[in-house]
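Researcher: Before we compare anything, I want clean individual predictions. No alignment, no superposition, just each chain on its own. First chain goes here; please echo the sequence and then give the structure tokens.
Model: Echoing the first chain and its structure:
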Amino acid sequence: MTRTVRGAALLITGGGAGMGRMYAERAVAEGAASVTLWDRDANALARTADELGARSRGRTRVHTYVVDVGDLGAIAKHAQKVRKEVGNPDIVVNNAGIVRGNRYFWETDSGDDIRPTMLVNALAPMYVAREFLPGMIADPAREARIVNIASAAGTLGNPRMATYAASKAAVIGWSDSLRIELEQAGHRHVKVLTVTPSYISTGMFAGATGPLLAPVLEPDYVIDRVWQSMLAGDPLLELPSSVRLSRVLRAVLPTRVFDRVVGDGFGVYRSMQGFTGRR
């Protein structure tokens, strides 16, 4: 792939606002052929589409679909529409995600917390990728990308976010397995990028505190790094680099030592105590 997405077709979940909107802005700025946005918020989608349309001045076609990716049936239904009305995307950014309250696991509700978190964060990326992968694989002359936004929370346990951590751990395991499968099957034109950032200051994790060596990240910085890694065909992006350090320490230190040194000493296990999330 070139150094830009010029001429490419992108599909971004959670594209109505926040990081999803920022990915769309970058695509329009670089002259993407089309940007397809999925979001459950119709008003946010309309606002974003209007702004992107004004910025692109007709150079990039902007398509919006009101989709709740927590409804797995809706994914199949709208994927069929996209293939028919826009065409199969060259790049899929699985960006949509949710996090629920500052509670211990036994205080969570299976219907309001556990089920929607696993549906949106873990199953939806799989279902979205499954819909568009055959089209990507079928055209080996055209490079394709699947970007899966996971989380550093999926690489180690953290109190008060057990379900969220589980959902992101699932994404990480699936995403890297998919990457290896594509390589083994000879479909090397389809690259999979797994992203594991720590907290990002978008409001989603309002009130959370960055542990030692892992300050809260600025969205612009994350977008830049993800974009560079996607275009380069990198397999994994850990932000900041201390996320990799914590994985190494988790592997070499006894569990109780890791708890004391990293969990308590670095403040990881206290990082969600003040979490409020978006109001």
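Researcher: Okay. Second chain, same rules.
Model: Second chain and its structure:
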Amino acid sequence: MWQDLLTALALVLIMEGVMPFLCPQRWQRMVEVLAQMAPSNMRWAGFASMLMGVTLLYVVR
């Protein structure tokens, strides 16, 4: 189980690093837009992201 968890963490870190590596200016603008979002909207976006992840995990597994 630990190997799967660390593999998933490594993949998340790789995916998170792709945008700043390929398009640093766009990534910076996106972060600025996110900083302007209301906390409630950001919370809903995070919730939707988690639901999509759980759904994808269910479908894949």
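Researcher: What stands out in the second chain?
Model: The mean pLDDT is 93. Additionally, Residues 17 and 61 are 25 Å apart (CA to CA).
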